[in-house]
Amino acid sequence: MAMTQDSWRKQAEWPLAGAAVLFLVLYSVQVLVDLDPAERSVLDVLIWGIWAAFLADYIANLVLARARARWFLRNLHELLILVLPMLRPLRLLRLLTLLRALNRAGGHALRGRIVMYVLSSAAVLTYVASLAVLEAEKGADDANITHIGDSLWWALTTVTSVGYGDHFPVSPLGRMIAGGLMIGGIAVLSVITASLASWLVERVAAEAAEAAEAADGRSGDDGVRQELAEVRAQLERLIERLEGR
Question: Which CATH number fits domain 106-214: 3.40.50.300, 1.10.287.70, 1.10.3720.10, 3.10.20.90?
Answer without folding.
Answer: 1.10.287.70
